[in-house]
Amino acid sequence: MVMKKDRYYIDVINAVQVPILVIDREMRIVDTNSAARKAFGRDGAEIKGCPCHKVMHRSDRPCFESGVRCPVHEVFATGKSVREVHQHQRADGSTAWEEILASPLRDEKDLIVGVVEELRDLTETLQHRNLVKELQDQVRRLEGILPICSHCKRIRNAAGEWEEVESYVKERTDADFTHGICPVCVEKYYAEYHI
Q1: Which of 64, 73, 92, 112 is the most exposed, having the fewest neighbouring CB atoms within 10 Å of its CB?
Q2: In which domain, by residue range, is 71 found?
């Protein structure tokens, strides 16, 4: 494979499937890969020179001025890589939760001239995590101590109302009920019909 070195590196960066942005000290986007352009619904010329907070948050103020930890600001301040999660606006109007991996971009004199941000979409992972937590909470409610009437066997729910066991379980699980009579009750209530 023979390619010019600059073209080769551009093609490698554009082949990466996560959005990558290069941001300067003025919080302006200097460069992007094709995944970033696709995520924000703009071509490179539209994004270049725009403040990162305007593109990603639709805000006129940088994150750090709004009380949010800003990876770009922090990398320039510390010279170290930063990992942070932000909520970003997408071109289609949807919201994405993204892990930002921000790293210093240094020149030949080892001075930080920019910040490279990789954006990893966590939206689906967080939705799954919330679903798992919700299901675990349901299981805990079903496994916990349930107040049950010793006579009619109704269960007292969280609102303090008494409801049938079948209703209580059916509302909180996918379980369904069928009715029958156990051998003890057959003997107790239907002894005259029992052979």
Answers
A1: 92
A2: 5-125
